[in-house]
Design a protein that fits this description.
With 362 residues, the chain is α/β, with parallel strands linked by helices. Helix content is 42%, strand content 13%. The protein contains 14 helices and twelve strands. Helix 6 links the parallel strand 6 and strand 7. The chain binds flavin mononucleotide. Flavin mononucleotide binds next to loops. The site of flavin mononucleotide (FMN) has 22 residues, from loops.
Length: 362
Amino acid sequence: MDVPLTVADYELAAAERLPPGVWDYIRGGSGEEQTLSANRDAFARHVLRPRFLVDVSEPDLSTVLLGAPLRAPIGVAPVAYHQLAHPEGEVATARAAGEAGQLLVVSVFASRTLEEIAAAAPGPLWLQLYWFRRREVVIGLVRRAEAAGYRALVLTVDTPRVGRRLRDVRRGFAVPPGIVAANLDAAVMARAHEAVDGESALVRHSREQFDPSLGPADLAWLCAQTDLPVLVKGVLTGADAELAMAHGAAGVVVSNHGGRQLDGAVASVDALAEVAAAVGGRGPVLVDGGIRTGTDVLRAVALGASAVLVGRPALWGLAVDGEPGARAVLDILAAELEDAMVLSGRPRLSDVDSSLLATRPG
Ligand SMILES: Cc1cc2nc3c(=O)[nH]c(=O)nc-3n(C[C@H](O)[C@H](O)[C@H](O)COP(=O)(O)O)c2cc1C
């Protein structure tokens, strides 16, 4: 292929490079993959209404997120095991995101240590957590994140157990030997990498280790354990946004986990306006799921997002060309967003609101 020009070009190039089991693990959704498709289809229904005769000579994409200045309202979503895509893993992603002036949310299933990632990162880092049954594991990670300079925690609430991802079940997928969850001890990770036919090791592991009783009081407890802001990821309704904010959350991430949890769940971009209204400016509202172009970012901001996160695209960039590949993907999104702001007559993020959008039925 010629030089990749779009995020979609990186996807095609990554598909050629990654082993089939890893490709399926990254690309797949749960069940019939309805939500996976919906995340993309929903964007096309929000058509853009550009304005002209506006001075767009100095477009400004910059923003501040929980005190951290960013060059664009874009970041990398928490995605497990970046070493599946490139041997440098999250260290390469951290350099790429920081150099691009964007955010990296590190997964609790990162394949490099929190400290290695922090030492390499020129930009802001947040740490994502799951609610492990062993609470001391959660608190141990919080303390390490604080010490290493992470600026926020992201508690993922949409995963009381891992969804039924049939591609992984059919392959009996397990993370390949040599790639580990570098921040979790052997007790938490016991049997996590044991491949068994007709079973996803990840599903079995989540049933053993994730605590499905997570409730609002637990969120309040976690917020009380740390001075770091805690965002709640996986919010798809105004009611859950309200609950999260009322129990100490500093903000929310509108997400259906990239279509990997409840199949049939609403596309995240379709849940965004309701959630943003419920949060009502009390904290940042991020969104992820199917964001692949600058005009997708523009639409998300118009629907109330403070910033967007991309999951799979970061791994595609890493798979194609390590750190420069991940950087290129993030730079493409920012450059496309700038084009879209100029061409729609919205030179600043504060100019981007719902007046930019009309809904195409269907
Ligand atoms: C391979 C893969 C691993 C993921 N791992 C995690 C994780 O460890 N924690 C988490 O909160 N979300 C995880 N997610 C979900 C992402 O944070 C994000 O919600 C999703 O990828 C966004 O959709 P997109 O990939 O279409 O951009 C993962 C997604 C993928 C594709």
